[in-house]
Write the structure tokens for this entry.
Amino acid sequence: SQGEDTEGRLRLRLDLTACYPLEVGASKVQRTVWMYQNQLVVLADQIEGPRIETISYSWHGHPESAWRLENNWAMLHQEPASALWFTSPTFSISGANVNRLPGSRGQLTLTAKGKNTPVIWWIFSHGGSPPAFDRNVDGKAIQVMGQRFSVD
């Protein structure tokens, strides 16, 4: 489903279950993406399956981007003065997560791997510094830039 919610945010919900082979055993792979004020993208993945214990993500940076990592945030910087900050409260993010793709001559990729949780959140923010966020105790909602995002 897609549309604009009551807060003026764009939202798109995708069922990606059929994108994975049956051997994976995914009974549900649902991604919800919100965009707010051309400055913030919030992504929520819900992945279910009896054998799915760990999840791995790979985020590729532009070959000309500079990387910076601080306080569990990654930042990609590209001239002229463009900064994209991103993080996930589910994963620990440090310099150890950033590697060169095999066979590449410069492109770096951030890889995050960890335990599957009911909702895996990612926050992408365009600007000079990363925004503060707060995740609900049950993990089904997150608040970023004064906006509450929920998978319910």
